[in-house]
Specification:
The chain is about 55% helix and about 5% strand. The chain is mainly alpha-helical and about 180 residues long.
Amino acid sequence: MPHPESTTLAESTVGGERADLLDNLAQHRTMLRHTVRDLTDEQAGRRTTVSELCLGGIMKHVTSVERVWAAFIQEGLPALGDVTDMSEDDWAQRADEFRMLPGETLAGVLDRYAEVARTTDALVRSLPDLDVSHPLPEAPWFEAGGRWSARRTLLHIIGETAQHAGHADIIRESLDGALSMG
């Protein structure tokens, strides 16, 4: 089922590789959103495993990941920040990204995700070149001196969305037996 943030090939003003990337990302977004269908805010915030993850928290995290990496495509390193300079408050704020906080609603979380998705899709359609690249920060999980192109960064966003859609599927099935597919 299409969602407001999804760009299908028919709706896209681009073709070829960009259309393929946008369509693939839209498919994974749709699956992730489908996983949280018909949930209450309380259900979206409930932990169903020993993990700290809840469905609303996964949605918040995927929204943040997409927002930050799309900004990286435009701005480079300043968009990512420096994990070595993070304070205890910064780490606590990051931890809050994985759970529903008092006053947050699933509808609000989904609206923020849709807005980030629209922004990312517009960026991909407007980029002059998918080969534009920026250096990656120094971190144990990145190759020293590595660079990511816009293309590689979009593939990362797609991978993160797909991976977390799988996590969400397990949590949803644990919550009420519902399956994303089936």
